[in-house]
Amino acid sequence: MRIFLPFLLLFAVIACSEKPKKSPAVLAPGPITLVIHGGAGTIKRENMTPEKEKAYHAALNQALDSGYSVLERGGKSLEAVIAAIKVMENSPLFNAGKGAVFNSEGKNELDASIMDGSNLMAGAVAGVTTVKNPITAAYAVMTQSEHVMMIGDGAEKFAREQNLETVDPSYFFDSLRYNQWIKAKEADTDHAAHLIDPYIKDKKFGTVGAVALDQYGNIAAGTSTGGMTNKKYGRVGDAPIIGAGTYADNASCGVSATGWGEFFIRLAVAHDISSLVKYTDLSLDQAADSVVMKKVPKLGGDGGVIALDRQGNISMTFNTSGMYRGYIKKKGEGKTFIYRD
Ligand code: ASP
Asked: Residues 273-330: pLDDT tens digits?
């Protein structure tokens, strides 16, 4: 015992002198910031026309402006996330809301989720077919019910009770997406064929997402999607799963993902990034990279994330050739990107 005592003392000294990681929640918050994505994938210049490129940049900028104007007038990060996502849900360029992909029965089944980093409240809907903007239904579940997630008919009924805008399922029809589904059905054995996006003639996950930091220092994150082309009836991806496609915690960061959902669920990608930020010394970028660039591909998946912490640090990381994405920290100075370079 006498021999071990000095070692024990040494251990105790080391353990006590190790600095606890400073919680970001106690640091002064950074400037109001919004970061968005419109899906990752094999998005290559050679498959894109200048007109399409322009259209994507314009749609991303419109989403950034819409969300940022909320933050600028003192609105909450949750409102900004909804405003930005609604713009992308209403655009056929993205696989969310109008322009959503078709499932194996030729239907559009939509998923969405939202989370409030200030109190870890969250809401989600899955498999909805008549809610015009599924992100608003996710918000309603969070704020107007005692639940976190509602699905199918029940979620639709609840959305109607909440007076959310509903539409005939035909509203979501888009002929390019429909033809994409027909092709995917024909090539049923080839998973990649399910993902060939008719807008860019290549493989793409077109989910949309946003993460915002408001002037009160609160982070919110949201994600909305039509899922994956030719997915089986009732299939639910990562987008509406809190901790997989979406997560927000003021003490770490907010995350929204896009990619092959099954892998993102199995790795609890959004929560994993948040935990790495919270419990290790990794920076936001290092945390996002270690999950998206290492863990996801190692398991066989692909995709990307956007993330934002309370200091206003941003990460937009993806293991595909492109990801529609952008951020804004100053009025009129939104920056949008498509490719890796
Ligand atoms: N993550 C979505 C899903 O698996 C697909 C996407 O990102 O586009 O449903």
From this structure: 999 999 999 999 999 999 999 999 999 999 999 999 999 999 999 999 999 999 999 9
Atom of ligand 1 nearest to the CA of 95: 8
Residue type, 140: A
Structure tokens at 54: 């322009």
**pTM: predicted TM-score of the whole model, two decimal places:** 0.90
Domain that holds residue 158: 33-339
Measured distance CA(164)–CA(145) in Å, rounded: 14
SS3 43: coil
Q: Phi/psi of residue 253, each to 5°?
A: -170, 175
Tell whether residue 123 is among the known ligand binding residues.
Answer: no
Q: Is residue 310 part of a domain?
A: yes
130-146 pLDDT, tens per residue?
999 999 999 999 999 99
Q: 246 in ligand 1 pocket by Cβ < 6 Å?
A: no
Task: Count up the domains in the chain and report the number.
Answer: 1
Question: Ligand 1 mean position to 13 CA, how many Å?
Answer: 48
Active-site residue, from 130, 136, 207, 336: 207
136 is catalytic: no
Q: Does any ligand 1 atom lie closer than 6 A to the CB of residue 205?
A: yes
Q: Does the C-beta of 238 come closer than 6 Å to ligand 1?
A: yes
The single-letter DSSP state of residue 204 is: B
Length of the chain: 341
Task: Provide mean pLDDT across the span 104-129.
Answer: 96
Per-residue pLDDT, averaged over 16-23, amounts to 50
| Residue 4 domain flag | no
- What average pLDDT does the segment 79-88 reach? 98
CB distance 259 to ligand 1 below 6 Å:
yes
In a domain, 327, yes or no: yes
299 or 16, greater pLDDT: 299
Question: Which position has the higher pLDDT, 259 or 229?
Answer: 259
CATH at 49: 3.60.20.30
CB distance 92 to 108 below 8 Å: no
Q: Cβ distance 87 to 63 under 8 Å?
A: yes
